[in-house]
Amino acid sequence: MTTTLAQVATAFLCRQGLAASTLKSYELTLLSLLKLHGRLPIELVDRQLIKDYLESLGELRYTTHNRHQAIISALFNFAVESGYIQSNPASRLSLRKPDREKREHKTDETIRYLTPSQLDILYELLKKSNARIETIVRLLHRTGARIGELLSLELIQIFPEQRKFQVVGKGNKQRWCFYSEDAELALKNYIKYYRYPASTALFTAQHPTTKVVTPVSYEAVAADWREVIDQSQNLKGIRLHDLRHTFATERVGLMGIEELRALMGHENIQTTLRYQKVTSARAEIVAKSALENLTKSI
Questions:
Q1: What is the number of H-type helices and E-type strands within the chain?
Q2: pLDDT tens-place string over residues 42-85
Q3: Cα separation of 106 and 108, whole Å?
Q4: Pairwise CA distance, residues 214 & 212, whole Å
C-alpha cells in the first residue's frame, strides 16, 4: 500500500510530547508543502522537488525560510526513522543567505532577551494584571521553560517544597525546572485564590457563559500578554519566548554550559553555546561604558 507525504506528515505531527506552540508552528509551515505535494507517494518526493519548493518561498525572510527548511528536513528525518524511505531528500541542502536587496543582514544578535530595565517595567505592569499571567511570566522567566511546556502542566506535577516541576520537552525528553522565591509567592497566590479547581491543569480558564472549566489555551495567555506589553513602548515586540532567552542569558557565566544545557532542555550543545555570544547591543553598551570611565580618569 502506497504511503503519501500527507500521511507521513500526519504521523509526524501526531507524535507525543510536542508542545502546543511547536505543533502549531509545524502545521503552519508544512501546510503549503502538503497542498502542493501531499498526495505524492513519499518515496517519489526527491531532492529536486524539495529544492524547487524551497526556491518558491522567495517572499520569506531568510531566517523564516531557513526555519521552514529545518522543519521540512525534520519531517523527512522522521520518515527515515519510521522506515518510510531510505534517505532524507532534504539532507545537507544549502541554507538561504541574506539578500542585501531586501536589506537582510546577518547579525550576532540572534537571541532576543529582556534588559534589566525592560524587566523592571514588565514586573511593574504585571502588578496591575491578572494573577494567572503574572504567575506564568514569572515561571517562564525564572525557569526557562517553554510556554507550551508550562501550559501542559497539571497541579500534581508541582513540587512546592523543592520549588520545582517536571516538563516534557522536545524529543519527548523529561527535565526538571526550578523556580525562585518570587515565582513561588506568585504561584501560591494564584493557586489559592484564582485557579479554577474543576480541572487537573495547573493553569485553568472558565467559559464566561457555560462556566465550563478547561486548561487555559495558548491564545488566551497570548492575549493577556499583549494586553500587558502594549502598555509600554519599551516592551514593543517582546515575545513570551523571549523570557526563556532572558533566563539563559542571565545564567551564562554563572554555571557550566552543560548545566545550562540541561536546564534549557537543548539536545544540541551548539544551541546552548549561542548564549555565550556577546550581542552587538551589549558589546556597544560595554564599550561605551569603558570609554566613559577611561575619559573620566584622564
A1: 13, 5
A2: 999 999 999 999 999 888 888 888 888 989 999 999 999 999 99
A3: 7
A4: 7
Categorise residue 163: left if φ over 0, alpha if ψ from -120 to 50, beta otherwise: left
CA–CA separation, 178 and 166 (whole Å): 9
CA-to-CA distance for 68 and 5, rounded, in angstroms?
A: 16
- All domains of the chain in start order, with CATH: 5-102 (1.10.150.130), 116-279 (1.10.443.10)
DSSP β-bridge partners for residue 4 = 41
> pTM for the whole thing?
0.61
User: Which residues 6+ apart lie within 8 Å of 61 measured at CB?
Assistant: 102, 104
pLDDT tens profile 214-229: 999 999 999 999 999 9
In degrees, to the nearest 5, what angle opens at C-alpha 152 toward C-alphas 150 and 157?
A: 80
114 closest CA partner among 73, 81, 77, 142: 142
Q: What is the pLDDT of residues 82-134, one digit of tens each?
A: 999 999 999 888 888 877 666 555 554 567 889 999 999 999 999 999 999 99
